Amino acid sequence: MEEMNKNKKKKRSILKAIIVTLIVFVLIIGLIGGTVFAIYINKAKQGLPNIDIYTFSPDQASQIFDYKGNLITNVYATENRIYVKLSEISPIAIKAVLAQEDKRFYEHGALDYKGILRAIYVAIISRGRTIEGASTITQQLARTMFLTQERTIDRKIKEALLATELEKRFTKDQILEMYLNQVYFGSGAYGIEQASLTYFGKHAKDLDLAEGAMLAGIIQAPSEYNPYANFDYAKTAQKEVLDKMLSYKMISQDEYNKAINEEIKLTNKPVEKDNMGYVIDYVKDFVASKFGSTMLYAGGLKIYTTVIPELQKAATQAIDEVLNKAENDNIFPKGKKDSKGVIQPQAALTAINANTGAILAMVGGRDYDNTKYNRTVALKQPGSSFKIFDYTSAILYGSITPSSIILSENYTIDNWTPHEWEGKYFGYLSVREALNQSSNVCAVKTALSVGLERVIFTARKFGITTPLNPYPSIAIGSFEIKQLEMANAYATLGNGGIYHEPYIVTKILSSDGRVLYEHQDQSYRAIPEDVAYIMNNLFSYVMAHKSNAKISGLPSAGKTGSTDNWRDAWFDGYTPNISVSVWVGPDSDEITFPDVMNAGARFPAMIWRKFMLVAMNYFPKNDFAKPQNITFKNAYDDTGYLTDKPSDGKTIIKYAYHNGFLPGTDIRDLGFVVVRVVKDSGLLAPPTCPLDLTEERVFIKGTEPTQYDPRYETVTQTLSISTDKDTYKVGEPINISVDASQFDLSNKTLNLIIDNLPVANLTNEQNGFYNYSILALRTGDMKIEAYLKDSNGNVVAYGEKIITINP
């Protein structure tokens, strides 16, 4: 018996030792495991991203709006999101999301331990057939903001740690706001605001119960429950959300019934607005140049533009209809493409508000998806459409009048001979008819008569920024320019000679509504109003003879343009309110259409007319305003002589002239020039030469003297010229002051000359000072000269100053 007791004690001792050993082993393993786990957790914490309420800024899409404030498109890099505050979200939609994703959100911490246990229990009793989500909204936010979607233990641990950190640093409302703006709802929509706009065309604050429940149902499977792709599935998910809300007593039975039976009206599925592509790219380039690409694509900017979508659509349709018909009629080969796979010929259209410079429509090609190259800002030869600057300069400086006669003939200048587009010369033409016939010879002669530098100066005042050199061929558009600038040049005429810098963005707001940019009008008078009116009158005559462009009852003006071999064709037409430039041609010399007469009066004119039939309805149909200093006089069409007599068998035309410069019946109107020379030398008389030593002489144009008599190019008395500063930037105003206080200024006139071009005759002085302001229009040195003359035209004093203009 005693032996038996000993054995029992021994067994108990062994068992006890085993148990103790096991306990110690488990404790050691637990300690080691706990240590390893603690090290792992600490390492995981160190690898977590920094979370700060002040640096939290999810990418937000920027929005581009049209002239009425309607959305054109969202601009974003990867996530199309419009951030809104929690207070700007419908409360019932918030309840729907909570019911679906985390009904105890305001009751638990970062992790919902009850939810985890419940999910395990449901999975066990259903034998895995039912799986309940156990992730809280905070965990989901941590995952979507900072982690990947991979299903690993490492990711789950980091998710829990991040969720815990989020709960420490943010309030529940802040977390919910971030979540609702972060979560993906399908169809490229991130956040509830963009989802609401995408599916229902309304803001998140306006969502009702049925709509909010449908959005909440999308979250778990955005592709499967996308209402555009699977509306029935989306309705099923919506019902599941509503069932939960009813069971959680978030809504009443009546609210449930109403929502279940509500007909959901989806907005039309978003489509790529390809007719807006060129506008969008142009706006994006502008914004990026001011604020950078990051702000553009992720800063949530609100960008308001001048674009009229209906006109953008009309421009696209006009181009397509005219050129598609030309292909169907076998005028252009159908489907011809260049080596880049781009359809040819191409076309471009720019429409500008003549009164403001606002860009109304911009189509840079036939098919944006095929070619995103924007031809409205590409360099193209303008051909005869450049003649606006030849004739405007000549009218401005008085080398011609509308009735002046110019001879179209075989004419050579600097070893270059301009040819007429018809292959034959026209003979004697009035200025008006020379424009209508688009005579190249007459344009070259006109430009030379006024001076090529003056032609370039006028082009600069009209907004042409591309390189222009004073070669005779410039008169017929041999240098490349941008269509946008040409459209605005003709707009300057339509606006009575006032230039407005073209613009497309009116205002840019930050994501929180602060004004970051607002357009400021940059305008100035480029030419006198009477000169603009005379040019408008001439171009109205041209328009009246272009059957493919003119529209009955619409006062309008315009000019065609074509280049050698019919490569580039233009039509620039305008009214007092809108200017529209159209270009048609191949992108490069790689493609040619030798058998097609691609004239400006053909396809571009047709496109212009189709577009204007729509655009004219957006503006008054008023005529060009006639200034008070404009006089209409009759003149013989063949000589340009004024006449008050009734027709005696000759053609008599009524021309517009500005007062003080009416053509007479002298020899100057027949291809001759009258210049003042020094009597004894025959050289040109400089302004400083006494009048009694000079006389006027008649020369055939081109044979007159060009050198001043050096004996009279200086004066003893000097004028002091001052400016605000000595260096300016292009576009800055230059305030000029000429000090003539030492002279008796009665019956005196101050002639102001800029870079050899007369700009003003000043008679009004203030305490002996003559003041004048101009804009810096080109880079380089600018020479300012002032001549003080008496009533007989004798120079009393002279002064000059050179300033510098930088880009």
From TrEMBL:
One protein family per Pfam: Transgly
Keyword Protease: yes
Keywords, alphabetical: Carboxypeptidase, Cell shape, Cell wall biogenesis/degradation, Glycosyltransferase, Hydrolase, Membrane, Multifunctional enzyme, Peptidoglycan synthesis, Protease, Transferase, Transmembrane, Transmembrane helix
Pathway(s) of this molecule: Cell wall biogenesis; peptidoglycan biosynthesis
GO molecular function: penicillin binding; peptidoglycan glycosyltransferase activity; serine-type D-Ala-D-Ala carboxypeptidase activity
GO biological process, one term: proteolysis
Protein name (Swiss-Prot/TrEMBL): Penicillin-binding protein
The organism's taxonomic lineage, starting at the top: Bacteria, Pseudomonadati, Caldisericota/Cryosericota group, Caldisericota, Caldisericia
